[in-house]
Queue: 3 jobs
Job 1
Amino acid sequence: MTALDILRKVFGYPAFRGPQAEIVNHLKDGGDALVLMPTGGGKSLCYQIPALLRPGVGVVVSPLIALMQDQVDALCQAGVRAAFLNSTLDYAAVVATEKRLMTDDLDLLYVAPERLFTERFLNLLDRLSAAGKIALFAIDEAHCVSQWGHDFRPEYIQLSILHERYPAVPRIALTATADALTRREILVRLGLESARIFISSFDRPNIRYSVVERDNPRRQLLGFLAGHENEAGIIYCLSRKKVDETAAWLNEQGIAALPYHAGLDTVTRMHHQQRFLREDGIVMVATIAFGMGIDKPDVRFVAHLDLPKSLEAYYQETGRAGRDGEPAEAWMTYGLNDVVIHRQRIDESEAGEEQKRIERGKLDALLAWCETAECRRVRLLAYFAENMEERCGNCDTCLEPPEMWDGIVAAQKAMSAILRTGQRFGAGHLIDLLRGKVTERMAQLGHDALPTFGVGADLDEAGWRSVFRQLLAGGLLHADAQAYGALKLTDSARPVLKGETVLHLRRQVIKSREKSALAGRRNKQRNEARRNTAFAAQSPENEPLFETLRAWRAEQARAQGVPAYVILHDKTLHELAARKPENLSELLNVPGIGQAKGERYGAALLALIPH
Ligand code: ADP
Ligand code: ZN
């Protein structure tokens, strides 16, 4: 069989996507590869198909123990002989799998890295390799070798052993991490310097990015969620406390939400993760402890209630939305406080000066991205050194271009308020001062007698917050963490103070609850319209049949104890509902139905489809 035969017969897809075909052939011919592809790009097939084409078993190293079961289940559904070895198996199951491994009964074996390096397992590999029966090694989530990333796994460093011990076996390392430093680290640490590198575009065209200025975050969140009724999504918060509170509050609002953070015991965490994966429409409220390698294809949104650490982190976290390629949203609320908190976190960390300098740089880049009036996708990809020529038309600044205004005078007023008060105060007091609000503190300090007192009454409080935030993001001001977030002028402020430059600021728009909800619903309509054109299959008249098929799938999933998407993807159900195949051969033409699924479910599906 050729690679294309396998793609069609086993996986049921008509054609390779992007560089998949080239990667598969390169591996098939014994070459090493580093594959950089965004989440949802289709990395798995890049090692699964060559493993089926080459003699012997493909050994897949993955740190994601919790997901191995689902990955293996999905392969078994497609008729591939797959199994896994990790600490969740009891002794009898381990022995049984080892036996299958040694009797040519496996095409793919998923292994946890700590298991790989046991004497026992290496002995088995030695025997297989002597008989020429290792098809390839796939190193999934290869960025786990990077000591700077937050997914660092010490065992990953040892993976270079594979090449030393089995030089004849081709290796493929895969990651969705986009930054250049990590890529270089992977090549060096895994000894892949001479591997061929395949880089795909990191654009995720189906994800819509928006950032809103934080005003009333709960109200804003509800407004956003109004556009995602009964859909699965992830809400990220910085602290465990906020995770717990937000999840509880969402439940009170009638939204099925579960908390997830490192402070919960393992059993609860696993239980919540399982429910998120298996049930429809669960919202996971989580710290960044949640999400690495979440394979759920139909996560429809990722919301950030707090600013993430960097644009890399943001890209990774939001990347968990829309793996299936259907419309998804990344949404974030962001405020002045975030800046102060993050600066403080960096200043007070144990890291060395060099590391702190890097982290500050990353934070600044993220702030500038939050405040940009340009296309967010263009700016995001530019950060990863990818050049996109045109605006995307699918981010907030493209859909509703922000109104700009000449902010030079406002900036001068703000700066003068800072200077006149000795660069010792935070935004709250400075805004009161500018707006001429007589507080007790103001009177005590005598600030109500300053010439800047009340010169900014033309802007409301939210307006001033926006000005301060943009001055911070633009590097004109700096929040001194040592002085409790007191704002100070940087050198770049001088031309503004002297009026020697132009300064365009975004106009602050705060939406009321009704407006937020309206925007949410409008968004949802827009998403649906987009889906209808992108996926002609999803027209309203096919909806009842789709629901019938979905109910059948839920039943199957329950009976077999696997997530619904392991049986068939939403996309495949939509196609079935639209094409209404009349017989098995028509059924096999539906993307996502290979031979094994056709044989297994064909009769049941054909019986459900009216002809
Ligand atoms: P990644 O590991 O890169 O995040 P996956 O390997 O999980 O991505 O693939 C993402 C989705 O795309 C899956 O639902 C997969 O079945 C689908 N897919 C991958 N390759 C193809 C293809 N050539 N044609 C159609 N669908 C594909
Ligand atoms: Zn855009």
Note: The two ends are 34 Å apart (CA to CA).
Job 2
Amino acid sequence: MTRTTRTHTLTFGRPVPGAEPGPDGRWRLTWTGTAVMGILNVTPDSFSDGGKHAALDAALHAARRMRDAGVLILDIGGESTRPGADPVPAHTELDRLLPVIRALAGEGVVLSVDTMKPEVAAGALRAGAHLINDVTGLRDPEMVRVCAEAGAPACVMHMQGEPRTMQKNPVYADVVAEVHGFLRAQAARVLAAGVPDVLLDPGIGFGKTLEHNLALLRATHALTAGLHPVLIAASRKRLIDYLAGVPDAAQRDPGSLAIHLHAARQGAALVRAHDAAGHVQALRVQAALEP
Ligand code: HH2
């Protein structure tokens, strides 16, 4: 079996669209090859799509289009994490997220919520979300407790620093060893505390220079050789501008796809994308071309 046709599993402590119940009382979502996590930012200020889905009907329309295109997971965000972003209070984030989650909860797609705040995660999971995507890598023990109690798996992402300052002067002795080491240690800690499963994400663009990002992307195979499914999320990020001269973030889908097809060949279980339909199409074609 090649890396692009490998089978991946994510375990949940409660029922989830598409997941099968197991004898241990848990539900397993299984897929083959690299699936797409579609991005739905319901924020006024996200770096490439801020304000586009702020109205509920626009958000639901975009979500349903991604679902129909074949994404496995929708990742809904109510706070921008772009470099320099100002934090928003939990109640503002919840006001943005909850109507979208409630409307989509019965619609047959797995819902991830992109949040750094345990109280937002708890409210989102109560409203029907299934998975928590925390760019701080569940460093807050309260976030671990919330996920464990709700039976929700989590995406553990690596970030050096915090969004407001992370791009100032990131320094590593060995970026691949440090990032992979952090992810493996966090995975063990979080699973031991009762979170049913984890996705691992090296956090492209989060406290990393272009060279750091490239080293991590080239080493994706080392992370996918481990026990946990890996998510790569480079969609429309600034490294594409550095590599190909595309200052307008909304024009970076071709570069995003190039990175994500590379990640798929290195065994990534998921790629997180704004152009979800384009990614589903390209990944299906790539998988068919594998010997
Ligand atoms: N990147 C962003 C947001 N969430 N989550 C994970 N797991 N990995 C990432 O690399 C990641 C993420 C930033 O992208 P986006 O959501 O498009 O923008 P913003 O944070 O400005 O809303």
Note: Residues 175-192 form the longest helix (18 residues).
Job 3
Amino acid sequence: MMERDISSAMITEKIPEAMQNTWTAVDGYINSHLTLSDPILDAALQASSAAGLPEIAVTPSQGKLLHILARSVGARNILEIGTLGAYSTIWLARALPADGRLITLEFDPRHAAIAQTNLDRAGLSEKVELREGPALETLPELAAEGLASFDLIFIDADKENNVGYFAWALRLSRPGSLILIDNVIRDGEVADANSTDPMVQGVRRLNELLAKESRVCATTIQTVGSKGYDGFTLALVLS
Ligand code: SAH
Ligand code: DHB
Ligand code: MG
């Protein structure tokens, strides 16, 4: 995966600084009025940052959105593709019932090591299984093991492989499952057919597939916040 400082890229390239400052300030305001952090979540972010992991985890309000969606669908089995330091993982796993399980896939051993420490600190080592390796290799293993009925699947790894991940998500889901895909707007570049950014192209290929995929009911929501301008796709599996 390409590691780059998206926040500075955003400010210097497309997003006016005053606008980004407003989004960041409003996220701060929201964070101070809703319960969007605690010592364990803060420690996960701090440990990730201290280890030099890219600062691309979902924001606190986005993490809580994932948590609320998981609770809303009554998720008992969750699959996450792209762990990083397990910040989103913690939000999702906390939505599970006592016997619920989450499997998260990460190919970078450095990220996986920090993630495991963060999960241990969060008391989630039992509920969460972290599988190391390229997701396109670990996903077929899940299928082979018969783990094919995830209630919620969060796709948040290398965007170039979004189409492949979505195909696996469909295979590993059931009618009623919710598939979420992060980073589908990319500063609005998604609407630029001439974009040469491989991540944008990965998202656009997925949208072309979604346009003709009758097995899901899908929408995309644009988001702004401390992490800039991006968005989520939500796809409800119908059949
Ligand atoms: N979900 C996290 C952020 C994930 S960032 C959060 O919001 O907190 C994307 C992660 O996907 C990175 O850790 C990166 O190493 C991982 N990744 C990239 N390519 C991958 C691949 N082919 N298989 C599995 N993980 C991959
Ligand atoms: C990138 C990846 C992410 O998962 C994200 O939320 C933001 C940025 C990236 O690779 O640039
Ligand atoms: Mg992401």
Note: The domain at 16-174 is CATH 3.40.50.150 (Rossmann fold).
